[in-house]
Amino acid sequence: MYKRTIQDHIEQWLFKGKVIVIYGARRVGKTTLVNQILKKYAGQDIDFLEKQITLSDPKSEYRYLNCDYITVRQLLETENEHQLKQILGNTKLIVLDEAQRIENIGLILKIIVDTFPDVQVIATGSSSFSLSNKITEPLTGRAIHYMLYPLSVQEIINTHDPLYIESNLNRLLRFGSYPEVFTTKTETQTREILESIASNYLYKDILEFENVKSSKILYNLLQLLALQLGNEVSFQELAKSLGINHLTVKRYIDLLEKCFVIFSLNAFSRNYRKEISKSVKVYFYDAGIRNMLIQNFNPLNLRSDTGGLWENFCILERFKYNQNNRRFVNSYFWRTYDQQEIDLIEEEGGKLTGYEFKWGESRRVYTPPKAFLKHYENSSASRIDRDNYISFLINTE
Q1: What is the pLDDT of residues 238-293, one digit of tens each?
Q2: Where in the chain is the domain with CATH 3.40.50.300?
Q3: Please, what's the b/e burial string for 202-218 (b: 16 or more CB within 10 A of its CB; e: otherwise)?
Q4: What's the CA gap between 180 and 153, in Å, rounded?
Q5: Which of 327, 314, 39, 286 is nearest to 179 (CA)?
Q6: Looking at the chain, which residues constitute the CATH 1.10.10.10 domain(s)?
Q7: Strand, coil or helix: what is 146?
């Protein structure tokens, strides 16, 4: 079992009067993470904790409640302080798993944290809570937010070593790093798990909470985005291909981002006239899901999209590192109309740092785009390839 990097950060905030909110796609390991925290604080075997899926034992000080259960939701959907007190009982630490299923969850959490300050609540959500409820406004100043991704390179190295990543790099780019997928040995089982995740979980929250009637359009949109990996996307062209309005395309992409299926990078521009300023690139939170959508799990030496997969992998892993280690930067890509480009720009403390991702091993000195260095003082750019990617992804440069 891999220890998740954010666990230590979460534990630093426990019992300090804040709700801990953990976002992440289904099956990335949120339940395992919170049960590890419960197990540590309760001093109980994990089998005991897994039985705490109902409200049947209010005497317990450490509890796990699965909000996918309708009985749990029905009892928790109350704003009555007396009823909440009865539900909480002697609880010190309570986990509300898949809390976005509870109506008015933001307000209910606000009441708990304000009325019962000694009760520590950890709420997990497989989609952005804004899909079903408003959580940000009620919990302003009352919550600490974390995102759990599929396994990161850093987490894998912490359990193994860099050589393990080297030997599994092909697998990571083909099948991704969902915990269950990465620890499965056979390729057949790996593909079956990915198919299950995509079929049973990928669109569940969108279809339930946003009244999206056609899962087929969502699937077709994701296929188109998968085929454009690493390229700028045009909402107008996507709309034309799908036979829908471009505003609907934008809405669906926004929903897919909120459900942690895809994420986007905007173009960086400070009004240098040759810069692309309004373009967007779309990437996937997991390479395995992306490859499943296009039904292509071929080895890297037999693919034409290896460069795009490599770019997706490096940018995603950098995002994981930044989020897991509470490193807050603004991220963009950069391109000019005359085809000068940088795949990833990080803006931090007034400094711009660029990275260009190349699948091939380093064969020559990388020369950053002159226009970028000229127009942005205190900036730099470097090439990331198979010779130096590990130091980049775990920040040992």
Answers
A1: 999 999 999 999 999 998 998 899 999 999 988 777 888 889 999 999 999 999 99
A2: 6-147
A3: bbebbeebbebeeeebb
A4: 15
A5: 286
A6: 153-324
A7: strand
Fold for the domain defined by 153-324: Arc Repressor Mutant, subunit A (1.10.10)
In this structure, are residues 345 and 332 in contact, taking their beta carbons and an 8 Å threshold?
yes
At 49 the pLDDT is: 47
Q: Which of 104, 119, 142 is nearest to 21 (CA)?
A: 142
Please report how the helices 30-42 and 6-13 are oriented relative to each other, as an axis angle in degrees rounded to 10.
Answer: 50
Per the CB < 8 A criterion, the answer to whether 315 and 342 are in contact is no
Q: Two tokens at 138?
A: 């009620």
In this structure, the strands spanning 232-233 and 262-266 are unpaired
- Determine the average pLDDT of the residues in 352-376: 89
Number of residues in the chain: 397
CA–CA dist 103, 270 (Å, integer): 42
What integer is the mean pLDDT of 197-205? 79
Q: What's the sign of the alpha-carbon dihedral 385, 388, 389, 395?
A: negative
- Which architecture does CATH list for 6-147? 3-Layer(aba) Sandwich (3.40)
How far is residue 215 from each of residues 198, 211, 218, 334, measured CA to CA in Å?
Answer: 12, 11, 5, 33
Average model confidence (pLDDT) across the chain: 89
Q: What is the pLDDT of residues 43-86, one digit of tens each?
A: 765 454 444 444 445 567 888 888 888 988 988 999 999 999 98
The CA distances from residue 247 to 129, 255, 368, in Å, are 22, 12, 36
Identify the three-state secondary structure at position 52.
coil
What is the phi/psi pair of residue 253, to 5°? -65, -40
- Nearest of 52, 65, 57 to residue 102 by alpha carbon: 65
